[in-house]
Write a structure and sequence with these properties.
The complex is a heterodimer. By secondary structure, chain A is mostly beta strands. Helices cover 0% and strands 53% of the residues of chain A. Chain A is built from no helices and 11 strands. In chain A, strand 9 and strand 10 form a beta hairpin. Classes of the chains: A mainly beta, B mainly beta.
């Protein structure tokens, strides 16, 4: 299993600003994932964060908007840049060990 | 066609009944199937996974997989009010080692 923590748990931000979300895992994992869950929707994969290489982004998501860092095997950050109200969502960090686990999420509201 | 489809519900069942949640998927080569439970305002938690055709039981939960029909289901026996949540079906696709594709989820309501 894996214990995942995220910071912040929630935030309210102004349009045009950026927010960096941190994800910490209690064990070393090869691959970390960032998901978005918009209100009433299911989970959509934003990108896979690989340690030591560039993140792999899914269709519809770009590095300029969602830059990701993965400095080591237990930590990753996702930045939501130049935010608009459409970015209001829950952002979830996820890791795979024996199976896939999710962090508690960051609830972002953009005004 | 969506890759993973679920009825959004709500599915309402009385306490003690069997809840049946269904999921279909489009990628015939999919190999792994997962059911997650998500309480309102919380993150998803894994309930069960299944890889092989047939049934897999774990306590009150049974996952059923039919690859020929591209269909996976979750049965919850003796449903409890605490089972009220959204149930997400997830499929691990072929060709992409670690990507999970989620359905939109079925909201289950267990009534007293």
């Amino acid at each position: 299993s894996a214990v995942i923590s995220q910071k912040p748990s929630r935030d309210i931000c102004q349009r045009g600003t950026s927010l960096t979300i941190q994800c910490q895992v209690d064990s070393q994992v090869t691959m970390m994932f960032w998901y978005r869950q918009q209100p009433g929707q299911s989970l959509t994969l934003i990108a896979t964060a690989n340690q030591g290489s560039e993140a792999t982004y899914e269709s519809g998501f770009v590095i300029d908007k969602f830059p990701i860092s993965r400095p080591n095997l237990t930590f990753s950050t996702l930045t939501v840049s130049n935010m608009s109200p459409e970015d209001s969502s829950i952002y979830l960090c996820s890791v795979r060990t024996d199976t896939q686990y999710f962090g508690p999420g960051t609830r972002l509201t953009v005004l | 066609q969506k890759e993973v489809e679920q009825n959004s519900g709500p599915l309402s069942v009385p306490e003690g009944a069997i809840a049946s949640l269904n999921c279909t998927y489009s990628d015939r080569g999919s190999q792994s199937f997962f059911w997650y439970r998500q309480y309102s305002g919380k993150s998803p938690e894994l309930i069960m996974f299944i890889y092989s055709n047939g049934d897999k039981e774990d306590g009150r939960f049974t996952a059923q997989l039919n690859k020929a029909s591209q269909y996976v289901s979750l049965l919850i026996r003796d449903s409890q009010p605490s089972d009220s949540a959204t149930y997400l079906c997830a499929v691990k696709n072929t060709g992409t080692a670690s990507k999970l594709t989620f359905g939109t989820g079925t909201r289950l309501q267990v009534t007293l």
